[in-house]
């Protein structure tokens, strides 16, 4: 039976996607049409990586390997959209999902003929190991019948062509294995025609030539068998300058001497012990001796690594079926994380037992971070394998063919250190056989089908201490264990940095670890300290840095201005003033080079990134050197302007508009729509998520002299500080903003901050401390004729008068505040004042105006969509019901309010409402329930540092129980 292209009649289940030949797609209704060109290329790439994420950047490379257009990513999105429609219309059992970095083709594993092929090959391998060769041959023939030609034939993509060529090699391996098993089963006569065809197609491969010689000999045609050998010998010498492989020569000698070992067993299904042993041909570089390259650099004696990781990497390099493609393992990580050190260690560990035919090694990143030419690497490897210089061809393709031929039947470990990109690796990967490839890279290298990827991380504190102990002595580290931990934390556990620290300390036995830590704390000299001899963190980072495009280098420098541990992706676009629809695209080059860490992903699928302290220090050094101060200030203005735009949006979502806040004149930078999603969906939750970044932005704006942005952002954050209980951040940001406004002579900003600080004192129950702040702010606002500012000050001054029991004076101030809110068209501010006026009339038992005030306030809040205001007004209604002794109705209303503030996350409101519910249940003589509500109120108020409110709740418990209660704090 010849190895021909197969179809469904061969007994193999039809697949939805067929890539073992020209690309074909089928669904419930038959063949599905896919537009030729880009759509075919994108689909082909997705099918080859079925059920794995394919990055957008890889798809761009697959379509445009040399010079992609600026709209490349958009065009990929369009292709994916059209493919989704085609698959849906054709009712194909598959879907293309969007992921943060690219796309994911989800389908059953058997949805591709490639998946079926792999499953059948694995099955055949297992059957052969069990001694069931006939069944194994049947499974393997079914697998091979799936091929309809060359993989992805006719697809116009050089990148995919390289991948397809590797898969074609897998087919050839399967064919050769099947032929070997059939020869072991004594089926030599029926195989001669197939073997002759295969030798004609692959004239330089020793294995099929040896099988043909053996089949001819066993069929009683020894002279023809020797003719086949001599033809191969002549061809190998002419094309490669090499003699036939050692095993092929041995087979020819055995045929000449009529060796009895070449006679097959009688049975068609021999037992493993009886099966005739077939020669495993090897390609030799020369007749005698065989050259075995040993190019690995020395292993490192003080390596500290997780034994589980080392074992996993070792297993990935060596495990797998005998006839599969060579294993490729990629170690990924940032500069200095120890990729090369670990790769060398694993390579030495595996060399003798698993790769006795040699180890090849090359660093693929040249001077200036430029990729080393693969042709040059192949030239070195071919010489190491024994090929004379004059026999090495000039063309890259011919060198790659010779390289693959030499490794086809050898067990060689190829270590490729610091790879720059996939294009280097494709020609350096053995085509078939039992060799292994171990790669290290700073980039992602996601476009290598079948490669196992391991992300290396920095050392844990205990591992760091272990490494320092091996370099400078365990006793020295143990004496200053806390200082050692501080050093490890300062450099983020980076192995290279710790080696440099250890080397410097080893060279200076008199220097303590504490002294070293203090020297490294100075950011200006940190990189100078992290240099020793040829070891240098700055040099290591420079390789990655100068491997970036100029715009990407500029972006990294600008990102170092943002001081948060995690930043959203839109911020990078703001820093360089790029209006890209998907700002995450801008960050990908930095992420791929491991200079920017992907710290997390928010609920909207937007990346949050961060810089390690070492990279931040390096980037800030480059920032000071390469970017002017004016450009830095402009970048900060855009970044803070972006935060301001988002906070504006969150404020509008909470209050229903630009209400209860003094407006400023600072320019905003509008982030793309992706940055708006969470601040619209959950504005208060978004403010809390970004709390650290927002506080940093206030302080950064102050340092850069951006006083207008500084005070506006600080006052806009009060909603968060008040609702979630952050009085210390309230004061911290406002003191910074007040100093910035005063230094700039910004009277509006100064008044807004003073007024807000007055509100903070009220929040803390410090009523008399609030009065001077509010009084000064009111004077400035009156001078500026700023109605919103005046209204806010009058509202809070009224609160002070209420506290002192002067409701008449408070009512006058509230009425004045209401008039100013009306003038400012601030309906929400007016609603708040109406609610407070209702509280005064309620305490006087004047319920008619109270109800009027509350009804009007509730209508305003509902119209504006101000949920927090609605809760406040409904709470006042519940309190009025308590005054009216309508306790059951009051409880229902207050429970509704409790649900509202709980869903909203308003801890201040929750504390108040729980206290009110305690009062209601006390009035209803439900002592146990009342105590429970008062206790909950005390706990919530302690949590937000409202000690006065917590004390009041505990006092009410004393009253109801007649005994004191311990503080929750």
TrEMBL record:
Residues 29-105 form the OmpR/PhoB-type domain. Residues 262-284 are annotated as: Disordered. Keywords: DNA-binding, Transcription, Transcription regulation. Residues 112-256 form the Bacterial transcriptional activator domain. It comes from the Bacteria. Residues 325-530 form the AAA+ ATPase domain. SMART domains: AAA (SM00382), BTAD (SM01043), TPR (SM00028), Trans_reg_C (SM00862). InterPro entries: AAA+_ATPase, AfsR-DnrI-RedD_regulator, BTAD, NB-ARC, OmpR/PhoB-type_DNA-bd, P-loop_NTPase, Sig_transdc_resp-reg_C-effctor, TPR-like_helical_dom_sf. This is DNA-binding SARP family transcriptional activator/DNA polymerase III delta prime subunit. It comes from Amycolatopsis jiangsuensis.
């Amino acid at each position: 039976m010849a190895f021909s292209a197969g179809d469904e009649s061969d007994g193999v289940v039809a697949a939805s996607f067929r890539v073992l030949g020209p690309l074909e797609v089928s669904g419930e209704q038959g063949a599905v049409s896919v537009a030729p060109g880009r759509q075919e290329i994108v689909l082909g790439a997705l099918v080859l990586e079925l059920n794995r994420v394919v990055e957008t950047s890889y798809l761009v490379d697959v379509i445009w390997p040399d010079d992609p257009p600026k709209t490349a990513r958009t065009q990929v999105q369009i292709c994916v959209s059209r493919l989704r429609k085609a698959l849906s219309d054709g009712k194909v059992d598959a879907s293309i999902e969007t992921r943060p970095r690219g796309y994911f083709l989800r389908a059953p594993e058997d949805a591709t003929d490639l998946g079926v092929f792999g499953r059948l090959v694995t099955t055949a391998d297992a059957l052969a190991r069990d001694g069931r060769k006939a069944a194994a041959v049947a499974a393997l023939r079914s697998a091979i019948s799936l091929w309809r030609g060359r993989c992805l034939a006719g697809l116009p993509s050089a990148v995919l062509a390289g991948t397809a060529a590797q898969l074609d090699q897998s087919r050839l391996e399967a064919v050769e294995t099947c032929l070997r098993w059939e020869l072991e089963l004594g089926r030599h006569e029926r195989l001669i025609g197939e073997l002759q065809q295969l030798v004609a197609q692959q004239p330089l491969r020793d294995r099929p030539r040896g099988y043909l010689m053996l089949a001819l000999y066993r069929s009683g045609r020894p002279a023809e068998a020797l003719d086949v050998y001599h033809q191969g010998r002549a061809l190998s010498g002419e094309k490669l300058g090499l003699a036939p492989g050692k095993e092929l020569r041995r087979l020819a000698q055995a045929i000449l001497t009529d060796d009895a070992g070449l006679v097959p067993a009688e049975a068609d299904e021999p037992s493993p012990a009886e099966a005739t042993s077939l020669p495993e041909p090897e390609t030799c570089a020369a007749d005698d001796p065989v050259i075995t390259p040993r190019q690995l650099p020395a292993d490192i004696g003080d390596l500290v690594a997780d034994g589980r990781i080392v074992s996993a990497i070792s297993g990935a390099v060596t495990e797998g079926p005998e006839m599969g493609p060579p294993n490729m393992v990629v170690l990924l990580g940032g500069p200095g994380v120890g990729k090369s050190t670990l790769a060398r260690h694993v390579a030495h560990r595996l060399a003798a037992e698993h790769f006795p035919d040699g180890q090849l090694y090359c660093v693929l990143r040249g001077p200036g971070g430029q990729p080393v030419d693969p042709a040059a690497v192949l030239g070195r490897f071919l010489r190491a394998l024994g090929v004379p210089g004059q026999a090495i061809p000039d063309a890259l393709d011919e060198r790659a063919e010779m390289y693959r031929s030499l490794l086809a039947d050898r067990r060689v470990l190829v270590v490729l250190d610091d790879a720059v990109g996939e294009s280097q690796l494709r020609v350096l990967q053995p085509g078939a056989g039992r060799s292994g490839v171990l790669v290290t890279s700073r980039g992602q290298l996601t476009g290598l089908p079948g490669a196992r990827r391991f992300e290396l991380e920095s050392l844990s504190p205990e591992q760091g201490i272990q490494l320092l102990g091996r370099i400078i002595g365990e006793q020295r580290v143990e004496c200053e264990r806390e200082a050692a931990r501080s050093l490890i934390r300062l450099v983020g556990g980076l192995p290279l940095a710790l080696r440099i620290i250890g080397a410097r300390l080893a060279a200076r036995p008199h220097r303590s670890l504490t002294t070293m830590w203090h020297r490294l704390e100075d950011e200006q000299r940190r990189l100078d300290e992290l240099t020793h001899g040829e070891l240098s963190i700055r040099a290591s980072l420079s390789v990655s840095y100068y491997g970036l495009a100029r715009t990407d280098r500029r972006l990294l420098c600008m990102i170092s201005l943002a001081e948060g541990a995690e930043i959203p992706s839109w911020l990078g676009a703001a820093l360089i003033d790029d209006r890209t629809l998907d700002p995450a695209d801008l960050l990908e080059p930095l992420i791929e080079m491991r200079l920017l860490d992907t710290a997390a992903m928010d609920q909207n699928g937007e990346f949050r990134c961060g810089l390690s302290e070492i990279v931040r220090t390096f980037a800030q050094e480059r920032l000071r050197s390469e970017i002017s101060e004016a450009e830095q200030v402009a970048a900060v203005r855009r970044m803070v302007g972006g935060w301001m735009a988002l906070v504006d949006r969150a404020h509008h979502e909470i209050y229903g508009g630009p209400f209860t806040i003094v407006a400023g004149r600072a320019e905003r930078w509008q982030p793309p729509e992706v940055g708006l999603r969470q601040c619209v969906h959950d504005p208060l939750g978004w403010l809390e998520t970004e709390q650290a970044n927002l506080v940093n932005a206030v302080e950064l704006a102050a340092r850069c002299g951006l006083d207008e942005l500084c005070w506006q952002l600080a006052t806009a954050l009060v909603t968060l500080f008040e609702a979630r209980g952050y009085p210390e951040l309230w004061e911290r940001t406002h003191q910074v903003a007040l100093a910035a406004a005063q230094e700039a002579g910004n009277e509006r900003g100064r008044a807004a901050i003073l007024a807000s600080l007055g509100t903070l004192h009220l929040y803390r129950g410090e009523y008399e401390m609030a009065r001077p702040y509010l009084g000064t702010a009111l004077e400035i606002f009156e001078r500026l004729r700023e109605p919103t500012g005046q209204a806010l000050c009058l509202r809070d001054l009224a609160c002070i008068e209420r506290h002192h029991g002067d409701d008449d004076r408070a009512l006058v101030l509230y009425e004045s505040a209401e008039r100013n809110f009306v003038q400012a068209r601030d309906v929400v501010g007016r609603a708040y004042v109406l609610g407070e006026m209702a509280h005064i009339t309620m305490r006087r038992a004047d319920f008619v105006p109270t109800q009027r005030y509350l009804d009007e306030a509730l209508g305003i809040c509902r119209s504006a969509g101000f949920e927090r205001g609605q809760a406040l007004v409904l709470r006042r209604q519940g309190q009025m019901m308590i005054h009216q002794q309508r306790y059951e109705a009051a409880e229902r209303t207050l429970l509704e309010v409790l649900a509202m503030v709980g869903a909203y996350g308003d801890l201040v409101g929750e504390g108040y409402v729980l206290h009110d519910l305690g009062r209601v249940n006390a009035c209803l003589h439900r002592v146990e329930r009342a105590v429970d509500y008062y206790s909950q109120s005390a706990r919530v108020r302690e949590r937000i540092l409202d000690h006065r409110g917590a004390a009041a709740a505990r006092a009410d418990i004393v009253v109801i129980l007649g005994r004191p209660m311990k503080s929750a704090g």
